[in-house]
Amino acid sequence: MPRHQVKIKHRFTSDPDTVFAFFADHEQFGRLWPGRTRRIATGQDDPNGIGSVREIRLGPVRFEETVVSFQRPHLIEYTVTKGSPIKNHHGRIEFHPDGDGCRIDYRIVFDGRFPLIGALVARNLPRDFVAGLAAVGADLR
After folding, report:
1. pLDDT tens digits, residue range 95-122?
2. Going by C-beta distance under 8 Å and a sequence separation of 6 or more, which residues neighbour residue 2?
3. Residue pLDDT, tens place only, 47-106
4. How far apart are CA 141 and CA 139, in angstroms?
5. Contacts (Cβ under 8 Å, ≥6 apart) of 77
6. What is the per-residue DSSP string for 89-133?
7. What dotted CATH number matches 4-140?
8. Residue 73 · residue 86 · CB < 8 Å
C-alpha cells in the first residue's frame, strides 16, 4: 500500500465539461506545474483517453503517465508507467457539478522510489498544484 497521499479539492467557476476538457488535454495539463508536458501516445477511443501517455519533464527528471480510466466529464485516472522518482502511483481526478461551476477532488497515492523522495514530493506537489489551479481557474472563466 502506498505510504504517501496528496488530496486537493478545488472549485472552478466553469462547468464540468470545460474543466474536464482542460484536465484531459495533456498539453494543457502541464500548465498546472513548472514542468513541460506533452502527449506521446494516443488513447484508444479519445486522443487523451484510456491508453494515452503523457511525458512530463521537470528539470532533469523525465517520466511518463498513462491514462487508465476516462469517463467524460466525471473521472480521469492515471498511473506513472516509466521513469519517475515515485512508484506504486495512482492519480484520480473526480469532477463534480457545484452550482454553476465544478469542484474537483484530486487524489494521488504513491511510494518514493528512494528514501525521503516520497515525503519531498508529498510536501511540494500540493503547493505547486494549488498555484497552478488558481492560474488556470482564471483562464477557464
Report:
1. 999 999 999 999 999 999 887 888 888 9
2. 88, 89, 90, 109, 110, 111
3. 999 999 999 998 898 999 999 999 999 999 999 999 988 999 999 999 999 999 999 999
4. 6
5. 67, 68, 69, 70, 90, 91, 92, 93
6. EEEEEEEEEETTEEEEEEEEEEEESSTTHHHHHHHHHHHHHHHHH
7. 3.30.530.20
8. no
Q: How far is 77 from 122, CA to CA, in rounded Å?
A: 18
pLDDT given at position 9: 96
Computed on alpha carbons and rounded to an integer, the radius of gyration of the chain in Å comes to 14
Residue 50's φ and ψ, nearest 5 degrees, are: -55, 130
Closest CA to 75 of 38, 33, 105: 105
- The amino acid sitting at 35 is G
Q: Count each helix (H run) and each strand (E run) in the chain, helices first.
A: 3, 7
Question: What is the reported pTM?
Answer: 0.93
Domain ranges across the chain:
4-140
